[in-house]
Design brief:
Elements lengths: L18 H28 L4 H8 L4 H14 L4 H8 L2 H15 L1 E5 L5 E11 L4 E8 L1 H21 L3 H8 L7 H11 L8
Antiparallel strand pairs: 1-2, 2-3
């Protein structure tokens, strides 16, 4: 996925994202949700801890933070994990992450003169005394569809390379427990209605 920078000013025309592109965006976002989950498992392997304490230690750390921590730990490890880590989280991966962030958080402006979907992101390139210039990132329909396919393939490779499948299989067999709020609401609903006084 190569970047291009427009040499001349342009404009956007309003548009709607079609169902095929919407589905591809959903697939990209789902892939990154699975990646976030897999990074927690990867970190638990690197620090030799169960998933629960690892999750507590990580808190709400984002994907970039988890990759950074995993990189530090991989560099301290013996064997091929350092090389594997560098290969998995390379420039190609960073392009996928940028695309995901633009699609998930950018504001759709419309289509560019070239027919690409243009998203305004919360990033500036320069400011003057009156205004800030915000970055607009544009992706073609083909790029979005290809990124969705590539992210799904990437996730299969990541799970295989980091040997995460046994941990994912174990987790899939765990029972779903009742939530305390659900039990409270259930008890509350079972209380008998007070009888009217006559």
């Amino acid at each position: 996925m190569s970047k291009t920078y427009p040499a001349n000013p342009g404009k956007t025309t309003p548009c709607k994202i079609d169902d095929e592109v919407s589905a591809a965006i959903g697939r990209i976002i789902r892939s990154f949700a699975e990646l976030d989950n897999c990074l927690t498992l990867y970190l638990s392997l690197l620090i030799n801890l169960e998933e629960s304490p690892t999750t507590i230690l990580l808190g709400r750390m984002n994907i970039t933070g988890k990759i950074q921590k995993a990189g530090y730990l991989a560099s301290l490890s013996k064997g091929t994990i350092k090389t594997t880590h560098k290969q998995l989280f390379d420039a190609r991966f960073r392009a996928f992450l940028k695309c995901r962030n633009v699609l998930a958080h950018g504001s759709l402006l419309g289509k560019t003169d070239e027919g690409n979907f243009a998203f305004l992101i919360n990033e500036t390139i320069e400011t003057d005394s009156e205004n800030a210039r915000f970055v607009v990132v544009a992706y073609s329909k083909e790029t979005i569809l290809q990124t969705a396919d590539n992210m799904e393939i990437y996730m299969e490779d990541l799970i295989k390379e980091l040997a995460l499948q046994p941990l994912l299989d174990t987790r899939a067999q765990l029972p779903l427990l009742a939530h305390p709020k659900g039990r409270f609401l259930q008890r509350k609903q079972k209380k008998p209605e007070p009888q009217p006084q006559s």
